[in-house]
Write a structure and sequence with these properties.
homodimer; 191 residues; Arc Repressor Mutant, subunit A; Tetracycline Repressor, domain 2; 9 helices; DNA-binding
Chain lengths: 191, 191
DNA sequence: TAGGTGATGACAGCCGCTGACATGAGGCGT
DNA sequence: ACGCCTCATGTCAGCGGCTGTCATCACCTA
């Protein structure tokens, strides 16, 4: 008999998503999530800094995908080329198999303002990090911040479209379309 | 003798800002804020849906400024012209006299992640609302959302610059500069 | 003068979250 | 084989955010 099972964090995350989806975020207590996998509330809060984090922890790899994309871009790339490279790399993070899981997760987030706040915060932190790498590559302000925020905006819009009912294009395809739209918008073209 | 003083909400907001700035957000309890103006915690939470809101309530007029700007734009304006009109109108909301107050308030927000989350959420809601009016004026998706998010991004970057130490340009001036930068970025110009 | 209105107070209680300390299985050195 | 150390977990007490419920009582209105 082992004293504790491995993968505690992941089991808690799975259980939490299921309970949130089934019963609602606010109607589910941290104690219930913990007990559903045989643990106590105290252990839950040792793994996650707060109740919302159980849905968000583990996105470091997405951040890395963005940064890797930027790092892979050739020297002398324009800011927009860096944005494009980051988006392409980020898209790899969401293959078709993840679409259903992403839909479920997003439906939970969309139903609770507190979770939406956290999501925005994470995206915002991502934009800040991407902006840092742009600056590290010599992009001056305010271009670096604008480019990074634009990258995240395009990502967000594209992701929302990617999980829409009936959508079957890849995230990368959608991103290219949305980015092109942003370009023509900024160029002042009429709607 | 009046039973209650008028302006309860405003007194609570002033007291809260002062306490937060002086002692820190987390170190200040809702009870303390309420008591500092002669009220109880219960009354505090009748005026504000949660502790953070005491710093954010009353921004409806900023939202209106954005929307009024859009409404004032001529028929047939391009999305970028709508963005420009919204930004110009929003800038009126922050005359030079408000700069110091904005600085104090922002310094409090910048020191607490929970407050940053709320701020992002408000900006995000603003982007959504602006996007709605763009759509109502016939801008299709995803251009409407992209334009609205870009407007908020430019506003955010400009506002941050506006309250920087030593900055003395008007918010409207800064916004024009930042918006121009975004245009040339999207046009693919090198940094 | 009676009754209605509406902001506030009082109180109990849930839940998120934390610090402090105890427990016990597995690994490791001797 | 023995004892020690590590470290994820459990237990417990407690604070603060937030809510529902009911009472209070100045002011207004008929």
């Amino acid at each position: 008999m082992v004293r504790w099972q491995p993968g505690t964090r992941e089991r808690l995350q799975e259980a939490a998503l299921e309970l949130f989806a089934h019963r609602g975020y606010e109607q589910t207590t941290a104690t219930e999530i913990a007990q559903s996998v045989g643990l106590t509330e105290r252990t839950f809060f040792r793994h996650f800094s707060d109740k919302r984090e159980v849905l968000f922890q583990g996105q470091e790899r997405l951040v890395e995908a963005f940064l890797d994309g930027v790092a892979a871009a050739p020297d002398g790339a324009t800011p927009m080329e860096l944005v494009s490279a980051a988006l392409e790399s980020a898209a790899d993070f969401f293959p078709g198999e993840r679409r259903d899981h992403a839909r479920l997760r997003q439906s939970v987030i969309d139903q609770n303002p507190a979770l939406q706040e956290r999501e925005r915060h994470k995206l915002s932190a991502l934009a800040t990090t991407v902006g840092d790498t742009f600056r590290a590559r010599g992009v001056p302000e305010p271009a670096a911040t604008l480019a990074a925020e634009s990258a995240i905006t395009v990502f967000g819009v594209s992701f929302t479209q990617w999980i829409r009912d009936g959508e079957d294009r890849s995230l990368a395809d959608i991103e290219r379309t949305v980015l092109a739209e942003l370009r023509s918008l900024a160029a002042g073209e009429a709607a």
